[in-house]
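User: I'm curious what two different proteins look like when written out as structure tokens. Can you demonstrate?

Assistant: Sure. I'll show them one after the other, since each token string lines up with its own sequence. Here's the first protein:
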Amino acid sequence: MVFFIGGIVIVVGLLIAFLAASSADTGYGVAAAANAQSVATAGVEDALLRLDRNPAFPWGSGVSQPYTVASGSSTASVTVTNPSSAGQATILSLATVSGHTGKISVVISENPVTEQVSIISWTNVQ
């Protein structure tokens, strides 16, 4: 009887330990995914700022050289492409934090007269 009750106590203890560890890991994963998304957002915002300050930034070259943007201890890889002659470009920002990836694609346009940059679409890519 003592072995039976002892075995039940051990099984219940192991189950509680497993659930606690699983819950902590899930919480950390959610935080890492949110952090990756915010770092990718910082990359897009940096590209928008560069486009606003230097209207010739991606234009004429077709594709800008990928560059990195630091945000805290993480970085985002940012590429700006100019696929059309209509003054539109696509910003792609990719960040990975602890195995979780945040990826954002933003299509923008530039008014050739005022050089004002406008966001056409903002998509979180899965």
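Here's a second, unrelated protein for contrast:
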Amino acid sequence: MKERSAHGVDRELLVSALKRQNHFLPDRDRVWSNIESLSQNHVFTVTTGHQLGLLGGPLYTVYKIATTIRLAEKIQASCPGIKVVPVFWMASEDHDLAEANHCFLDADSKYVYPAKFLGPVGRHVFQKEIEQTLGVKVPDSIRQFYLEGRTWAEAHRRLLHHLFGHHGLVLVDPDDESLKSAFLPWMIRELEGNGLAGPVEETNSILLTQGYNPVAQHRAVNLFFMGHGGRSGFVAKDGRISVPDAGIDLSMAEVGDFAKINPTHLSPNVLMRPLFQEAVLPNLAYVGGWAEIGYWMQLKTAFEHAKLPFPLLVPRMHGTLLTPDTQEGIQSLGLSPEDFKKPLGQLQDEFLRRFWDEKPVLDAMEGVRDSYARLAGLLQDLDPTLAVSAQSESAKAEGHLENLLKKLKKSMRNRHPKQFTLLLRIKGLLFPEREIQERLLNITAFGPDYASLIDQILAHCDPEKPMNQWIPLS
């Protein structure tokens, strides 16, 4: 807080931008109060962020926000006289459409928005295909935000406000002229070659000596240009800066004026974005996944070089949601949720031992192996070439034995179809497509009472305990 207070931000500009961005939201009283409070020097932020995945993307976006809300509450409760506002930084300028254009309502229901476009996802105006994509399985309470003619950023803002607005979450879209104007000094230094590259290389070398590989790759210029329908990188060569795709070629003397005229056309990349965030927000901490924390650590020296305070880094919560049916199924099998973290084959084998003692069969198979070993030993003294043949036959027999055991286990499982079908179904719900649940499924897979769902997630969220939480839903 002392470091943050010593490095002021333009609070008037920030509040003005946030009011402009959020003015159209319904039921915004708590959000509006948080925005207005940011004009005061004793008010700070705790921030998370992510790209604009369809319908909010996988569950881990929800967990990032939940951790941010709880962390803001915890800091505020422990420090009388201050206020902490939870913030979500919308990565609206991300242009990786393939990561943002789909969501899973369950492992077998992948919804893909088929429109093709270039440039930042947040600026895309939805085409008629969006309403066809979402279909009838997406509840009206969520589908109402994704309409033809609405920008992706606006839809995402409305969705997250619907889910978290009553908790005071403030949504920031960095694709904003006034916010970028506030960040201009750092972007100009980046274009002039006095930005991230050197400090990041210095930090990367330190991390490498300690056994950590850099997560994100830096560039000579860590900015993109937007304004020609796409999002293209700047190229630094022979004392000039260019964007070949857009026909831009600048001398170093022209860079400053170019940036001042075109702030909205400049877009920080993944490594520059943290500096942008910390330059315009009175931020205390950033909540992210482990990979994000990895690339933030690459920026430690860069923040010092940029004379910006480096925030606390807090890993987000991890969670697995257990529906009432899933809880009942796990209990009926006499298992615990932790059991389902095991590989499927191991889980099935351990469960099968409740119904069938495999030891006699395994002993008999071991007897076959011993017989081949004894035979090979005898042949070694009589004719070594035949001993090699015996070993070859033993290897073939081993394959046959393993295949026979697999068939036998399947046969034994088929004698208890109800239990093993249930076990397989629960494994698929908790680890769909062999992924952890939070990395695949969308929150709509557990709707439609989202307010209750969010409250139950928040009840299991402790910012100081990021390990996986089994969250039983009622």
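A detail about the second structure: The first strand starts at residue 43 and ends at 51.
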